[in-house]
């Protein structure tokens, strides 16, 4: 504790107030955060108790005393005065008189300068013990809080009571309290004895249990700590390494009397519980054998969400985007989002036909969007619930992305207007890795939504699995600790405690704009769904549940006992809501047809006609004026700001780009630049996200320039193109695919007027995001009538780099295309190509030229509807000298080419052509090189299929008809059981009415996507080229 003495002796000439000023000038606010190193250099002084760990405590008190001498216990006041007055070491301290609780002011009677060294040591030790005790409650109080409404389980999966906390099951009953004090005092953890219970202790500045008091008897300290930390709320926050945030939480939970509710608030809470409870009962009465994943056992969820929304609305939020699993979803739709009840009820009618195209989805997966007045705040609020698949937690990043987009489009840079609420089940929250990935996006500049409120419906069971078999962490919420989110566990049978933590959670989000978790510890009254028998697997738990009084009944009895409502008022509230349900049920009978479009979570006003149809079925030319190309090219090859030093290597890259532009050509990077830059000019926001996308994994893009001399000084030339251009966002993501792709999908959901692209580092990595692809991107429109124009850029190509970085698995995407391989569509249909696009579930392309890549990106936005676009992008072609496109192919009037036909000598005399080779992507360049080497340019035509899906039946039919004497072969560099073969072959056969075989030139089937051996790779390549150009290769099979 020499620090204090040093400070004191240094500051002695000053008065207390001068000292405070000087000290606070030297000590910025941030210096008071935990972990800050304190630095004092003068020699140790002689006060014997000023040593070791006591130093922080006494030092805290000293600072408090400097600010206000009355804020510390009288004995310390005297000590500090004596010290400052120059008392010699060992003489400044005098022991205080013992104080009883009712005699706090007796401290004032302490006499100066009397005392013994033993007293001194004991006093300091006791104060330290009390401080440690307070800290123990703050850190570990939640372990003994009474969180389980059933009273049989431990929310932290641990029945032991921390040795340094004196809690017991019968909380503040007198007998129990005495018993607990015994644990503490007689041989207890901190060496305090019973005689200390009535001694008054100075409270450190890190607690608020004192309210107006700065000192309290130990007995009262313990009582208040128990009250704050060991009742129905368990607060986990002491891992947060920010003093201001910790203090904020302590103030919220420790301040005496902080959890007060007005009678009005209690009545509102009761009414909300009535709705929540009676809604489930109504469904149960009407459709007792239908699955609905009811909320029974956690009915408090509805008032909890409404409280979070009310409080957030009060703080200025006008849009809340929610994501949630099955449990209680219908109830949330009905009572939080306020979907018309008849719309919900008619989903139970198995006789109603679906009006919309697509497969639709079950009622407890559908989304919803609703703008309404918040009755508590009288302000407008838009609430949406994002549709989700069964895959638990998969919607988390999607909700985040949509929230980010809504914030972006309304200029809400701090998340003050738009926020997300995510609901979770306890088993899923602990078990699904996507939760962790999503948390890691929460504080990244390009991904933060400035705080999400997470609400866990912790019914202490996952389907049939006990939590002890479902997680290794104490709580299901521990994953949130990685981002220092405070976690409020609360017993759901105490509705007021729940409302309180929800208010605090909303305030936390509003104050710090960081994530927060509300853990509603509850139970599940029925089985996993209403048909399930829970007694098979959880007999004892369910015996207890059978005895459990529903929370509504409990709370109603409490309020009746308190005189807040009377029994008839309560019954009236129930019958009022029952009547609402009955009337809606009657109206639901009038519904003749089911409209999934009533369940849209993200409307795009103005994009479609009022009937939800595209405004046209055409797509304009995707070409650009030469000046536009030249202008974008010149910005792309320069540094558009002054005094900015770029890397020498990059200067060379930009110079090369400049030369390309001068020669009126583009490579891959420039083509992308042209597409992005021109769309920005047209007011289309572009967001490119993924691992290392700013530079580009293959160092070809360089969309963010870094000054070589100034740290973090960057320039994004794309944002310097046009005076009123749309913003360009390019952001390196965290090392996540599932989370980031989900996020971008959500971002793309918010507006049709944005080009949102996710680039995989290598295409094969998309498989860790497979759930987003399988559950959202591929079937999203069919399930939820919701279009999405997300673009996936998947680097793909057999470059001899081994099995891991070669294949983006085209076969998987192609297998999930919804077009029929065996049915030739009506090729005469007007705008066949656009209709085909409109009908497909996604577009899959592999462009062989930069120009076509440019066109397909622009087409994505110029189309009058939105479809996901999967692009297999090249690696070696990024720098291939032949992979260039002239401006001529990008001018007005030009289009994306679904097929690039042969245009060489073979096309001049098609009758002479012996083989028509079809291929896609980079292998084209291997094939043309080989053809030239073999001097077969007249005999072999090569046609590139650039758009694989929807399959260009019309153009390919023309190609086949053009070469009547040619046999047909599909050539790919991928193994036979992979790539495109299985997709292309039946469609080619259908195109030609199965008139000819379609041969295969490519690698043999294999388990791995590619060999790890370079020589084998080259041998395989040569073999497939040999087959492709051996005109007799297929003779024996004919
Ligand atoms: C990713 C995933 N795996 C498995 C399932 C099957 N499943 C549906 S609900 C459920 C239990 C979920 O438990 P919990 O998260 O605690 O929510 P609860 O059903 O208890 O509300 C399981 C395993 C699923 N839907 N999603």
Detailed description of the structure:
- The chain is α/β, with parallel strands linked by helices and 1038 residues long.
- The strands form 7 sheets. It has an 8-stranded mixed beta sheet with strand order 3-10-11-9-8-4-7-6, sandwiched between helices. The chain has a 7-stranded mixed beta sheet with strand order 17-14-18-19-21-20-26, sandwiched between helices.
- Helix 31 links the parallel strand 24 and strand 25.
- 48% of the residues are buried.
- Thiamine diphosphate binds at residues 327, 390-392, 425-428, 457, 459, 461-463, 524, 528.
Structural class: alpha/beta
Main-sheet strand order equals: 3-10-11-9-8-4-7-6
The N- to C-terminal Cα distance equals: 95 Å
Specify Rg, calculated over alpha carbons.
35 Å
Report the mean per-residue pLDDT as an integer. 88
Total beta strand runs: 28
Bound molecules: thiamine diphosphate
Which stretches are low in confidence, meaning pLDDT under 50 for 5 or more residues running? Answer: 1-46, 96-115, 167-175
Largest sheet: 8 strands, mixed
- Sum up the overall morphology in one term: globular
């Amino acid at each position: 504790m020499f620090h204090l003495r040093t400070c004191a002796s240094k500051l002695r000439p000053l008065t207390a107030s001068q000292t405070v000023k000087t000290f606070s000038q030297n000590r910025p606010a941030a210096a008071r955060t935990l972990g800050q190193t304190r630095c004092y250099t003068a020699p140790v002084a002689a006060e014997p108790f000023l040593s070791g760990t006591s130093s922080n405590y006494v030092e805290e008190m000293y600072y408090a005393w400097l600010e206000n001498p009355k804020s510390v216990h009288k004995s310390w006041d005297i000590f500090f005065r004596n010290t400052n007055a120059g008392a010699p070491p060992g003489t400044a301290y005098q022991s205080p008189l013992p104080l009883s609780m009712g005699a706090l002011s007796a401290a004032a009677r302490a006499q100066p300068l009397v005392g013994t060294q033993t007293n001194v040591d004991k006093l300091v030790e006791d104060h330290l013990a009390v401080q440690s005790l307070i800290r123990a409650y703050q850190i570990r109080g939640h372990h003994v809080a009474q969180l389980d409404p059933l009273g049989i389980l431990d929310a932290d999966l641990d029945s032991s009571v921390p040795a340094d906390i004196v809690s017991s099951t019968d909380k503040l009953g007198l007998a129990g309290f005495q018993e607990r004090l015994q644990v503490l005092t007689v041989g207890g953890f901190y060496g305090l004895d019973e005689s200390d219970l009535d001694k008054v202790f100075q409270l450190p500045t890190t607690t608020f249990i004192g309210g107006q008091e700065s000192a309290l008897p130990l007995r009262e300290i313990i009582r208040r700590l128990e009250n704050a930390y060991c009742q129905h709320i368990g607060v986990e926050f002491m891992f947060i390494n920010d003093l201001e945030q910790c203090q904020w939480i302590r103030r919220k939970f420790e301040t005496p009397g902080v959890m007060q509710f007005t009678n009005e608030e209690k009545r509102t809470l009761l009414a909300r519980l009535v709705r929540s409870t009676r809604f489930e009962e109504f469904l149960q009465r009407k459709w007792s054998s239908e699955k609905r994943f009811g909320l029974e056992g956690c009915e408090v969820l509805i008032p909890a969400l409404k409280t979070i929304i009310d409080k957030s609305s009060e703080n200025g939020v006008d849009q809340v985007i929610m994501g949630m699993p099955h449990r209680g979803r219908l109830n949330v739709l009905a009572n939080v989002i306020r979907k018309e009840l008849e719309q919900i009820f008619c989903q139970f009618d198995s006789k109603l036909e679906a009006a919309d195209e697509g497969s639709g989805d079950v009622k407890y997966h559908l989304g919803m969007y609703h703008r309404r007045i918040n009755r508590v705040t009288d302000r407008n609020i838009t609430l949406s619930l994002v549709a989700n698949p069964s895959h638990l937690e998969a919607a988390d990043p999607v909700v985040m992305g949509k929230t980010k987009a809504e914030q972006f489009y309304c200029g809400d840079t701090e998340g003050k207007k738009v926020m997300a609420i995510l609901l979770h089940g306890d088993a899923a929250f602990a078990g699904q890795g996507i939760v962790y990935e999503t948390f890691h996006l929460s504080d990244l500049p390009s991904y933060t939504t400035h705080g999400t409120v997470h609400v866990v419906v912790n019914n202490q069971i996952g389907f049939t699995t006990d939590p002890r078999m479902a997680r290794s962490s104490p709580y299901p919420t521990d994953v949130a600790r990685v981002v220092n989110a405070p976690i409020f566990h609360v017993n759901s049978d105490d509705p007021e405690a729940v409302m309180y933590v929800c208010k605090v959670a909303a305030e936390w989000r509003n104050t710090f704009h960081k994530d927060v978790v509300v853990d509603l510890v509850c139970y599940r009254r029925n089985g996993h769904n209403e048909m399930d028998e829970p007694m098979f697997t959880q007999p004892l738990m369910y015996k207890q549940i059978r005895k459990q009084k529903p929370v509504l009944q409990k709370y109603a009895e409490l309020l009746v006992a308190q005189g807040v409502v009377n029994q008839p008022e309560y019954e009236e509230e129930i019958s009022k809501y029952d009547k609402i349900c009955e009337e809606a049920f009657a109206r639901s009978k009038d519904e003749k047809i089911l409209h999934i479009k009533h369940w849209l979570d993200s409307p795009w006003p103005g994009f479609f006609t009022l009937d939800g149809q595209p405004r046209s079925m055409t797509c304009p030319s995707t070409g650009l004026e030469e000046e536009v190309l030249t202008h974008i090219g010149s910005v792309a090859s320069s540094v558009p700001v002054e005094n900015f030093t770029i890397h020498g290597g990059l200067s060379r890259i930009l110079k090369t780009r400049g030369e390309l532009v001068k020669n009126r050509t583009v490579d891959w990077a420039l083509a992308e630049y042209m597409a992005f830059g021109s769309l920005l000019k047209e007011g289309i926001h572009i967001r490119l996200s993924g691992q290392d996308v700013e530079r580009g994994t293959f160092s070809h893009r360089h969309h963010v320039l870094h000054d070589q001399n100034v740290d973090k000084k960057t320039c994004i030339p794309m944002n310097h193109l046009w005076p009123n251009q749309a913003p360009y966002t390019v952001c390196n993501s965290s090392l996540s695919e599932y989370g980031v792709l989900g996020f971008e999908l959500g971002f793309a959901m918010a507006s049709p007027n944005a080009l949102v692209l996710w680039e995989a580092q290598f295409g094969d990595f998309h498989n860790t995001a497979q759930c987003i692809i399988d559950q959202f991107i591929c079937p999203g429109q069919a399930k939820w009538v919701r279009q999405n124009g997300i673009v996936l850029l998947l680097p793909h190509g057999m470059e001899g780099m081994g099995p891991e970085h070669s294949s983006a698995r085209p076969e998987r995407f192609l297998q999930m295309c919804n077009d029929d391989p065996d049915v030739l569509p009506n090729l005469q249909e007007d705008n066949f190509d656009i209709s085909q696009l409109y009908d497909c579930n996604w577009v899959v392309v592999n462009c062989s030229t930069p120009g076509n890549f440019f066109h397909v990106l622009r087409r994505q936005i110029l189309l009058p509807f939105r479809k996901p676009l999967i692009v297999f992008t090249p690696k070696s072609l990024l720098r291939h000298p032949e992979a260039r496109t002239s401006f001529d192919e990008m001018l007005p009037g030009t289009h994306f080419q679904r097929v690039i036909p042969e245009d060489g000598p073979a096309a001049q005399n098609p009758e002479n052509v012996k083989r028509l080779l079809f291929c896609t992507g980079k292998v084209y360049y291997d094939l043309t090189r080989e053809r030239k080497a073999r001097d077969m340019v007249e005999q072999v035509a090569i046609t590139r299929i650039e758009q694989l899906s929807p399959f260009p039946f019309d153009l390919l039919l023309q190609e086949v008809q053009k070469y009547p004497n040619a046999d047909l072969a599909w050539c790919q560099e991928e193994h036979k059981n992979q790539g495109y073969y299985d997709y292309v072959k039946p469609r080619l056969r259908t195109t030609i009415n199965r008139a000819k075989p379609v041969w295969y030139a490519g690698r043999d089937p294999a388990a791995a996507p590619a060999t790890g051996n370079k020589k084998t790779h080259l041998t395989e390549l040569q073999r497939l080229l040999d087959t492709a150009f051996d005109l007799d290769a297929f003779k024996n099979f004919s």
